[in-house]
Amino acid sequence: MSKSNTIGIVGGLGPYASMDTAEKVFLNTIANKDQDHLPLIMISRPCDIPDRSSYLLGKTKVNPAYEIIEIIKELENAGANIIGIPCNTAHALPIMSVISNDLRERKSKVVLINMVDEVIKFITNYYPEVKRVGVLSSLGTYISGLYRESLTEAGYDAVFPSEYDQYHKI
């Protein structure tokens, strides 16, 4: 990654997840002085982004993708060219497909990091002997089948809590 790249973080989808992501960027940057750190912009507006699980569970018809898109546009306008959304549930197809379509239609040059793909790359690279992967997630992520489908396609056996535990032990 060159110094000209600026990382953008769509924050507020779990405000602590956003801060944790920013911290991981800083902790994993080789820097001897402040100026050696990668430029990073985070916009965190949790009050503006509807609950992802509620949308996926059909409790609301308001797709959070549209507010996420507005924040992505702001990050782009501020100079971000690599953007991450530190929220598994936001990567569910009914949300992420709207975001991806918007980027494509606007001919955006932004690179949007796919969290699920990155998790699978991490497992493959650092734990090549692993074939079964346990997944703990929000109810929306569980219902969407996001990890089940992606892990299965990558050749892994995805293991989840029982449906009873997933629904009743929150």
TrEMBL record:
| Full protein name | Aspartate racemase
Kinase: present as a keyword of the record? no
A molecular function (GO) term: amino-acid racemase activity
A Pfam family recorded for this sequence: Asp_Glu_race
PANTHER family linked to this entry: ASPARTATE-GLUTAMATE RACEMASE FAMILY, GLUTAMATE RACEMASE
Q: Name the domain of life.
A: Bacteria
InterPro entries listed in its UniProt record: Asp/Glu/hydantoin_racemase, Asp/Glu_race
Q: What is the lineage of its organism?
A: Bacteria, Bacillati, Bacillota, Clostridia, Lachnospirales
State the organism named in the record.
Kineothrix alysoides
The alphabetized UniProt keywords are: Isomerase
**Per its UniProt record, what Gene3D superfamilies does this chain match?**
3.40.50.1860
